[in-house]
Amino acid sequence: MSSITILMTLQNLAGVLTLAGAIIVVAVVIFVISSTSREEDKDAAKHKVYSVRTRYFFGLCLVLIVGLFISLRLLPYPRANAVADETVSIVGVQWFWKMANGERTTGPVEFVGTNEVTVPAKKNLKFVVTSADVNHSFGIYNSKGVLVTQTQAMPQYNNVLYHQFDEPGEYYVVCMEYCGQTHSYMVGKIHVQ
Amino acid sequence: MSTLEISQVEKKKERKLAIIWAVTFMIVFPLLVILGLYMRLNQGKVVELDYTKFYAFMTMHGLGMAGVLFSVAFAGLWYLISTRITRLNLGVGYFVYVTVLIGFLALAYGTLIGNFAAGWYMLYPLPFKGASWATWSTQVSAVALILMGIAWLVGILHLLYALTKRYGGFFNLLGWQYLRKGTHEKLPSVVLIATVALIPGIFAFLAGAVMLIMYLLQTFEPSLAFNPLLMKNLTFFFGHMLVNVTLYCGVGWVYALMPEFTKREWKVDKVVVYSWNATFFFIVFAYLHHLYMDFAQPRSMQYIGQIFSYMSAVPATAVTMFGIIAQVYHSKMKWSIFPLMSLFGMMGWAIGGFAALVDTTIAINVGLHNTLWVPAHFHTYMLMGVVLFIFGYLFYLFSGEEGIHLKNVTGKAGFWLFVIGAYGFLLMFYLSGINGVPRRFADYQGIEAGHVKETGTHLARYAAMFIYLILLGLLVMYWSLFAKLTRRQKASA
Considering the domain boundaries, does residue B179 fall inside one? Predict the structure, then answer.
């Protein structure tokens, strides 16, 4: 499965899981309210609830541990042994992106780059992301409007993001961290060939 | 739980302070909602706000809401504790009120007049670079927040000092005596929860104060510079804790007052002690999930962020949620407005918490971070959690201990309008988040990718319509609240 497909699945999964969770919570609330039409001895009622609680406690712990085990293997962070086919330097500036192929050899302020960059498809790309002024966030959307990946662009730090574009086409860079007046127009383009 | 012998005169004086807080909240809250309405209308291209104004509104909406919700949540705890558990100094209570009010007005001046627009989190070094506002407005806003922080710190320290004296030691407030053998005095659950909520509150305000003082220093000496990653950690440590602490203050009242409706004691036992002490631990470290997309943050801290965020679901649901179920289940209680709002408040907390849990999964967060999914989940447990707890408390306060048990058709009508409006409004946030619509955008016109622009714009319009319903619900609830208050004033006269 390509990385984008996994991500789309995860975003949809977030919606489905939350909807399912909300339905369960609402169902419990309705059940609890409807139960008050009949009185039961408080100790007997508590005993029933607490016996469910014990099972719930162990069930929840199990779900969380399994969830941690699976999800912590799908981290977006670079692996120690990661090898890049190509490097792309990214610098966020109020309110545009400076992007260029290759390693950055100057400081972020002096760095020269453009709002558009061309990169190859099916190659492992290393994005070295920083900022020349305030915090920005380097978010990449595909042409369908799916937020594919992102990392913060922070002054004084290089955030390294590895990403492979499986599909050629137009990708859109959007600043995902509020950075001042025209933040919502701080956009760029990545042409994937 | 009434263990305190207090004269009617003293009780009246404490009640007066509680009512002053309540009325202040009732004035400020809808005004801040209206700022939010303008933001959604602007995002929906229904109105056109200047960018500077939009972000100034956003800043005031965020900081103002966090401030006023914590203030009234804390004031509610103060009232319950001062009238039931131990005497609190009324002078300190008024000092907190007046100082917070001055701070709040100064903040409104800094943002709405001075156009300070760095967002609630004023992420370093945004206030100093490319700012569209004057340095004085940064200074006024920072001083305003420091003033509020000082007031809350004084209030919290006084409350904890009084409780420590009353229960013979600080650790007794955390319920540790329940873990030892031997007899001990019963600890009201509200005391345990207040302690667990307010100690992290102290950490939060201290972190916030350090950060704001650094900001102030830089406004006077621009050559100073601080580490942005450290500042980010301080910011989110402060913000995350403040929101959690506010929520727990509200949960404290539910623990304290729900038994009056269910006629079942909600007592502290070992499980409750373990649970709330664990909560104390979890909320201090869970803030790290706000920095998942800072790849430069040490990896171990990212792991801690997710693990602690996941674990915080255990005590919150297995003890508190099941606790309220055990209170209500087959209790033959009457569903007057307080228990209704409390149960729905718990429901909002659970739903918002669930959405938060999903987003605290790093692998999912990469697709949702700084999209509207984030405001979706925290608005769920603030608007449908904390705010419902607050209105439940206001109805309790305004109606009195007997009056609250009566039928309240108008209040309930307002409640339902409010709930429908709020969940409709929240749904637009969730749908926007799944569709990748970013947060903190004045509008979406610059986004060319797919249908993000159209989706964001249309859903913002629908959200605005639901906000009108929220405001209508508020109006009806206010009608009912003031009718209760005036009836009670007349009766006591």
Answer: yes
Q: Is B125 on the interface with A (CB under 8 A)?
A: yes
**Which residue of A13, A19, A178, A185 is the best one to mutate when testing the B interface, meaning the one whose CB has the most B CBs within 10 A?**
A178
User: Is residue B245 included in any domain, yes or no?
Assistant: yes
Identify the band that residue A8 occupies on the pLDDT scale cut at 50, 70 and 90: low
Say if CB A139 and CB A190 are below 8 A apart. no
Query: Are B436 and A141 within 8 A, CB to CB?
Result: yes
**Which CATH number is B398's domain given?**
1.20.210.10
- Please give the ipTM for the structure prediction: 0.94
Number of domains in chain B: 1
Tell me the pLDDT tens digit for each residue of A158-186: 999 999 999 999 999 999 999 999 999 99
Please give the angle made by the CA atoms of B137, B138 and B140, to the nearest 5 degrees: 60
Structural domain boundaries of chain A? 3-71, 86-192
**Measuring CA to CA, which residue among B428, B439, B447 is closest to residue A140?**
B447
Residue B474 domain boundaries: 8-492
B111 token code pair: 């943002």
Q: Give the model confidence (pLDDT) of B4-40 as tens digits.
A: 778 889 899 999 999 999 999 999 999 999 999 999 9
pLDDT confidence bin for B3, thresholds 50/70/90:
low
**What torsion do the CA atoms of B301, B305, B306, B310 make, to the nearest 10 degrees?**
140
CA–CA dist B224, B217 (Å, integer): 8
Architecture of domain A86-192: Sandwich (2.60)
